[in-house]
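ok trying again, last paste got cut off:
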Amino acid sequence: MKKITCANSNCGGTVFQFDEQKYPNATEVKCPKCKHIQRIQPLPSIDPLSWLKQDLTAPQVVKPKPQMELPALETEPILSLMTSNRTFALKLGKNFIGRRADNDVVLDQDEHISRRHAVVEVFATPNANWRYIVYDIGNLGETQSKNGIYVGSRRLSTFEQLNLVSGNTFQLGDTKLSLG
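nice, full thing came through this time. structure:
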């Protein structure tokens, strides 16, 4: 059974079925709703000896296409911690920030920062730039950080993301972080 959609714009796209096996040589079908006649391709005839005519040569090996390489980036992405003059190098992908030692950026001196507080995601863009996004750990389905992320005096909402550019500052607990 073949599903056919009526081509008549006044019909409203009625979908109906046509039995190709029952009528293998049919070249036209009529819409049961609006009676519009549509052309169809008949089933190709099947040669009973087609299996003898098969090409038995070895299949061609298809080489995979090379993956697109990201352009070389001039600078390493870094996040500098302004209050203690520490600098943390970021990797591509998710960089976790918090008090716990298993975070990528460990801020264990600030008691107002959660064990896992925030994430800075780093992406390489096709035009050879870095893209930085910071958001609360609650975005990943974990419990939201207790004190959140501040940009100036405004607290980001749980699912809000902030695009960062070099020189932007944001605050976690009592610690100000600047992308530099």
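cool. The mean pLDDT is 79. Residues 24 and 43 are 6 Å apart (CA to CA).
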